[in-house]
Write a structure and sequence with these properties.
The protein is an alpha+beta fold and 113 residues long. It has helices at residues 23-30, 67-75, 103-108; strands at residues 13-16, 19-22, 36-45, 51-59, 86-89. It has 3 helices and 5 strands.
Amino acid sequence: MGNLFFHGRMTDSVHCRGENVSAWEVEHVAADHPAIEECAMVGVAAEIGEQDIKLFVKPRNGREINPAELSAWLSSRLAPYQSPRYIAIIDEFERTPSLRIMKHRLSRALDDC
């Protein structure tokens, strides 16, 4: 018999500032922004402590997103521990054959944004 090893996250949450933060909750709030077509949240290594939140956003056609303005907009709708520390604007998300966003690719390409 062999061993089975899991690679990647088992859950879609991040431990930030002593709290478990659901990616679904943050993405759900961010998706309400009128300029956002799609978004995905991942955890990134924090300088001190557990993890920080990074939000990747894809703007709607013809719309621009200012990260500072988006951050302020999100801060008024999320708890302080849920607010993303980093926001990256991207053109497209890589997807699985079932069209789900490949979050593990986002966390590997953090330096590219």
